[in-house]
Design goal:
InterPro entries: HAD-like_hydrolase, HAD-like_sf, HAD-SF_hydro_IA, HAD_sf. GO terms for molecular function: hydrolase activity. This is HAD family hydrolase. Pfam families: Hydrolase. Its cofactor is Mg(2+). The protein is an alpha/beta fold. It has 2 domains: about 5-15 and about 105-215, 3-Layer(aba) Sandwich (Rossmann fold), CATH 3.40.50; about 15-100. Helices cover about 50% and strands about 10% of the residues. It has helices at about 15-25, 35-55, 60-70, 85-100, 105-115, 130-140, 150-155, 160-170, 185-195, 210-215, and strands at about 5, 120-125, 145-150, 180, 200. It has a 5-stranded parallel beta sheet with strand order 3-2-1-4-5, with helices on both faces. Helix 6 links the parallel strand 2 (about 120-125) and strand 3. Helix 1 (about 15-25) crosses helix 4 and helix 3 (about 60-70) crosses helix 4 (about 85-100). The longest helix is centred in the first third of the chain and has 19 residues, at about 35-55. The two termini are about 10 Å apart. The mean pLDDT is about 95.
Length: about 220
Amino acid sequence: MKAVIFDLDDTLFDHVGSATAGIHSWIPELGGTPSDELVARWFIIEQHCFDRWLNGDTTHQGQRRERLRSFLPLIDHPVPEGDAELDEIYTGYLRHYQENWIAFADARPALDIAHSNGWRIGVLTNGSTLQQNAKLTAIGLADEVDVVCTSESLGASKPDPQVYLRTCEALGADPADTLMIGDNLELDVLAARQAGLTAHHLDRAAGVTLPDLVRPRS
């Protein structure tokens, strides 16, 4: 192996944990009472609206507004008619979300091992370039990564084979010499293998850790 590509959200960066903490502190500002059920509904809405952006059916800001139109009625909060009012409410969520940004404890150790292997390190993420780079900076990993490729910068998203190939190209490594690691079996593993990379699944529920996956295997 000459390079490794990591997914970002829920691989290096704890998106679910950060968002859950953010939701719990944000909902009371809107007059609601947070609950596990509301958090679960938020993530369902988030995935649906985010996928619409990835598919080109709405803008990045548009999918944020769509989230609020679906979520605010769940906490009996009036849904503003204007985009500016929706954007202001979403800014409140973002503030709480960003205040809770955190890396997984095993992220830096895994990057250290990758460096010790002599591998170049990339991040491939379905997200906006500005926000995903801001996450890496906030959690202290930006300087450890050689290349960051986003669906926004590439003009395509996982599982399109081109996003894996173009990230390998940016790293200066052939797909056959590149390892992909991520939490999403379909997007980070199966699709990467179809594109010619080696890929390992980060299955945290099964007790797998990032350092396990970047140690060279005999």
